[in-house]
Amino acid sequence: MNAYIYAVELVEDNAPMRARDEILKGENTMYDLEGNLQSGLHAQAAANQNAPRPLAAGLNELAAAVHKNAVDHGWWEEERGLPEILMLCVSELAEALEEYRRGRPMLYYPCNAGGVCCDERDTPTTCGSRPYNPDNPKARCSAQSKKPEGVAVELADCVIRILDYCGHTGIDLEEAIRIKHEYNKSRPYRHGGKKC
To answer: What one-character DSSP code corresponds to residue 54?
Structure first.
């Protein structure tokens, strides 16, 4: 079997990278082989993008990493119960609401000189803390906090607390989300007649 035929079979068998390697080491390569192989690689990439992926793939791994970080930072020296975790989630959501009510950006870095950092505003202002550097005019303001804030960050904090708890208890969040999502797909339009 020549390299071209073998490569085409490998592409058809979902092994385009192996096909490329076989061609590179094969001796009887045809002129249009590279074009055909590239077409196969592009087709495979498109197929991979369109292939159904697990709904919440990677959440359990993320939960384990988040929980390890919480343990490493001393947040699990004593057992924490579900009611505590749930109220901490509520507090993060309340903080997200306050960020929204204040009209702050979804994600920003506070200015240690007061307010929202001038780098984050729609209109240019300065607190006087940002020394102009002609070599680097886009340099970060020295007064800009390293701690992110905003609605997006508070929502992330809530998710992090949920992931931490799932990592601690071993809850399979990926499976729970898959099951609940499948059930939700079967429900009628605006089920329950609720306003929100």
So the answer is: -
